[in-house]
Design a protein that fits this description.
This protein is α+β, with helices and mostly antiparallel strands and 127 residues long. It is 35% helix and 31% strand. It is elongated.
Length: 127
Amino acid sequence: MKDKFLAALIAPAIVVAVLGYVFFMSYKSGGEPAKKPPEIDARRNALYACEESIRKKLHDPGSAQFPPRGEFIVTPVSEPVSYDVIVDVRAKNAFNALRLNRFKCEIRELSTGTNGGISWRSSVQAM
């Protein structure tokens, strides 16, 4: 009986100690997780800007079905942070029919803010 009581007290303490160690070791290097290279963040932000620009052009933005972002066709442009993006989107048209449409977004960086945020200019064309 005494052994079961001790085991019931020790098991949660071990779990808490292990979780605490893992948490401590993951933030040991200054308390911040490793940062991604800026070009990866810029590309991800450009894809988000493209999605939002396409949604604004749709008749029913709530019906938009985008593929995973890894399936977007992304072409970097010679400007510092600019992309041409081609993506196929399913969305409802004015007749409530679900259609597959191909869009091309031209995403251009306007400015980078002091907090690291990027302002984008985007134009969208149905192809």
